[in-house]
Each structure stands twice: as structure tokens, then as C-alpha cells.
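Q: What would this complex look like in 3D?
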Amino acid sequence: MSILIDENTRLLVQGITGREGHFHTARMLEYGTNVVAGVTPGKGGTSVEGVPVFDTVAEAVAARQANAAVLFVPPQVTLDAIFESLAAGIKTVITIAEGVPVKDMLQVYHYTKHLPDVRVIGPNSFGVISPGKAKAGFMAHEIYLPGPVGLMSRSATNSYETVLAMTQRGIGQSTCIGVGGDVIPGSAFRDLLPLFAADPETKAVVLIGEIGGADEEEAADYIKAHMTKPVVAYIAGRNAPPGKKMGHAGAIVGASGVGSAQSKIAALTAAGAHIADSPGQVAEILAKIL
Amino acid sequence: MKLYEYQAKELFRGYGIPTPHGHVVKSPMELKAVLSRVSYPVVVKAQVLVGGRGKAGGVRFADTPEELEKSGTALLRATLKDEKVTALLLEEKVPATEEYYLAVTLDRARRLPLIMFSRSGGMDIEAVAREHPGAIARVHVDPQMGLRGFHLEQLTKAGGLADPAVKKGVQRAARALYRLWDESDAALAEINPLMVLADGSVVAADAKLEVDDSALFRHPELGAFRAELPESELEREARATGFLYIDVDPAGSVGVVSNGSGMIMSCIDWIARHGGRVTCALDLGGGATADRVAQGIDILLKNPRVKSLLISIFGGITRCDEIAGGVLKAVKEHAYPVPIVTRLEGTNKEKGLALLKEARLAGVTVAGTLSEAADRVLTAQKLGGRGA
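A: Here is my prediction, written as C-alpha cells for the whole assembly.
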């Protein structure tokens, strides 16, 4: 098993005719992902890499029974695209765009919070990959290896580092999720932990966090109360200066120290998580506990 | 994007929030021209975006045109906490009976808009929050429900307001501030102090507004303000070229070029672990070509504080051979006086490393891991960096 996507996923690509959408559709197909449809308004009836294109998500779902969507659309239209997929009945919506307004994701959060079977991932996400089964996103899939570790990360580069170190040690991954570096992610660590906890193939979970917000602290509360599987955490930004945005919209420590790496590490340590000082050390710790 | 006080007040007035009568001047000439038009005593406020302006001497008072000219001219030449003063707001002094605090922000953890009110305004609100958390009333608003009358009633009740006229004034200001926050995609809208006058009416003596950069496409009218905001030449140049430049630490000496903010943070951490400090960083974003990489290196090395450069890439969309090509191009075109350490991982890593090895450029070394790269970039700096 895996979570969110697998070999049976019928993936839809919103924005498939765009530069990124087209390129990564080819890469996803190359990986063996079951991409069944694409959507670009006005381009219905054409095809991209052999994948039929529709004008609307509803048409794509009706004709091709798509059940998950990955969005390669600009941030300005991301809110519309997410709602279009949800309105067409798609339950798993993966959003790549960086620079989506905070208020738009506030709206998505409140729309979806009472819909337990709906899962929005991202924005500012590298996507989701279940190695050997499917990928929906843009990660360099060559470095992934099927295996027992679930991973979720606010940063793409730090998750690649970690996955590479794991794969080099022969430690594979069940599902890797780009939570995204935004202020309000569609799904936070706290929302994904129960899915990993319930997945029989996942034996341990890696959490890659960073400064800003309290998502790591919330995850710590859940880990303390519910997780029986080991959690290994790496938090980036220990030496980031307060008050400065470190690129990700969500990565900022308040002037009074709120959202610092130290506070996150303290909470996760108290919850029983293993703390790694670097992505490489994540793999070392996993080698010992698995 | 943080706005200047005078810009924020312009928006506040549009929402019916009263502000003191004032003039904005941007040069000693403009200052001279208004000396006879302002009413005395006048408050002279330096327009800067750094906090703690008052304590840093950025707010002064003048009773006569002579005094105003003197302190205004001095302020226009001043630098407050590293920020150059380029404009002054000259305002009538408000005869206040009390000073309150009012703000709307996003409670990120609860994912809800939050209105805060306190009768302990006019001072450092973070200190108030620390020492007397009970002195700040907090009301969350469900955005699906929108701001309702009961929210405002809760706010003023928890804030301990009894006088009906004052309560009405604060509630009206809170409603307007919330609407402004909501409609302008703000991260923070704050009034500190909110002055209460003898007749119970309220006036926003100060104004803070921070807008979500990602939402600026919806607010072309705010884009016009941007041109007036302080931005270093390098930030401007990087933004114009589509890169993100981050001024990390004025006391640092290492520059970092990387792809992605997570990687930049990890580089800062590794360099700190090896005893150094990063001064600035440039995010190439995804999929940079050789030309773009060379351009990025060039921008970062214009910062004279950079004594050695770390280029760390984990290629996903980005290809390591393009990165290596960019390094070669940049170094060949400019004789940089700083050592460069490159660390490549991910897509086309072998090709990239081979390119660098073949070229054998003086001053460019290759590291295998991030830890090794951090160590080398600091050692290189000690041995032969700019200014060493």
C-alpha cells in the first residue's frame, strides 16, 4: 500500500498544455503513472503525449474517470483550479504553484475542513510520489526507491537530500509528500500523520520541517498522543535571522522568536521523535531503528 | 510587502478610519515649502519600515517653523536601524485622553483572522503581550461567517470599554480595519496608538499595513506604492531578473547561491555549524539555464561583503550540467576575487562535475557533501578570500 496515490490512481493534469504541465506529464508517464486526462480551457479535443485534453475537469472525470488531480497552473488561477477539481468530485488535489495568496488557501482550508475524504496537498509542493507505483509532481524520480519509510516535507530540496541519503543506504520510501512551504498548506503534517499511521507498508515516518508557524508543534502533539511508529525529524533554519522571510512564504521567525527551529525541535523531542541535524543523519537514524 | 505609515494612512482614510491631518515631504526643499502650512505643535515622523522607530529617535516634535526645519532636515539625513530616511510625515499633534491598540492579523496556527484590542496602546505591544497577556483582548473571526456585530461586542467587552461613545468609536474602527485587512489581502493591519479624544471619538495616530506579496496581482493600486519602498540595488536587480535575493546577516561573509529556500536554510545552518556566517543568498528557483546561473552569481558577487561563495544545488528540474556551465561562464567573464566552492547533486550531476573538472578553473573547487562544502568555503575564505 501507499497513501494518496498508487498504481490504480487515474491522474488528471490541470494545465497540461503549459510548458511545465507538458514536460512533467511526459516525466510522469515515463515513471509509469496512469495519467488519464489533461485539462486546459479552450484546448479540449487535443492531446498531449497521447493523453486526451478536455476543456473542463467535469468532462475529464466523466470521460476518463479521473480520481486525482495535479495542478500545473499559475498561482493566480490556483484557487479556481482547486475548486474546479473538488466540484467535479476529485478527492485528492495536488497543487504545485508557488505564490498562491494566503487568503485563497484560507478559503480552501475552511471549505475542506469538514470534508474528511478530501485531501488538498500544497501549494508550493513538489508533489506526491509512491516509488515504483506513481508520481504526481516534478521531483527527480530517479533517486527514489520503494520501501517502508513515509516522508513529508515543507521543502523540496531538503526532501531530495534526505531521500538520496536514504536510497544510498538502501532504505526505500512508501510515499513522499511535498507539504509545501506556504503559510497555510492544504494539508499540514498533523493531517498526514494519521494516513501514514494507518498504512501497513509504512514502518517509520520522516518529517522535514522548517522555521515559521506551528505545524511541527501540532505534529508533535499528535505524535505524542497517537503515533506508535517511529518519527525522525529534521528542521531547517536553526540559524535563520528573526523577522526575515527565507524565501518560502511560510518560513519566517517572529521578532519574539515564535516559529523558531528551537521551539519545533523541543516540541518534537518531547513527543519522542528522533531529531536529525542533517538530511544525511535522518538516514543514519533510520538505519538504526528500522 | 510592508507599507509606509503615510501610504497605509491613505488606505485607512479610504475605509473611513480617521487619521490626523498631515503632510508628506521627501526633501529639505519640500520641507521648507510646507513650514508655514502646518499647524503647530507638529509631530515629525520618519517614514521607515523598521520597528521601534520612536525609541530610535525617529519621532520628534516641533513648536515653531524654525524647530521643524531643524529637526526635519536632520531626520531627512538620518539612518534609523540601517534604514535610510527618505520621507517625513508631518502631523498635527492629537490631544488624546487615552491611547489604545487595535490590530487585525491571521492566526496562522488556528487558520483564522484575529482581531486584537488593548487599552495599553502606544507602547511596545509585544512587551505588553509578554508581561500582561490578559491586557489584550482577542477575538477570532470565522471567515465563512464574516465579521459580525457580536464579534465587536466581545472585543470591546473583553477589552474593558464601558463609555458608550468610546465603545462605538472603537467598534467602528475595528470594523473598518477588518474590512481593509480582508479586501487588501493584508497580513497585518495595525493601529498603535489609536488615540481617544475628549469627545470619545478615535483617531489612528499611527498605521501599519503589511500586504501578502502573492496577492499583489489583485491590487494594482498597491503596486504603485512599491516604487516608493526601500529596496537595495541587489534586491531590485535580482527581482527584475526573476531571482530572490535575501540579505541574511550584515555581519556575515559567505554568499550562497542555491535552488530553493529549504536548501538555502540548510546551507546557512551548515555554515554556522562550521563557525561561519552567511551574509546573503540568492535563490535561482527551478530549472535555471547556464546563462541564468551566471547572471545569478554575478548579482550576488556585487555584494562586497561576500568573501567566498558557496554554490549548492540539488537538481530536480534544475540540471547540474547547466549549473556547472553557468559557473564556468561567470568565472571566465569576470575575474572574481573570491574563492568559489561548488557542490552538485541530483539531475546530471556526473556531467556537471566532469565539466568543472575539465575546466580546472583557479579559485573554483568542488565538494561532495554540504558539510564538506561549508567547511571548504570557510577555509578558502581564510586562505585567500576578498579582504583576507
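A: To summarize the key features: Chain A touches chain B through 56 residues (CB under 8 Å). Residues 156-168 of chain A form the longest helix (13 residues).
Q: Very helpful, thank you.
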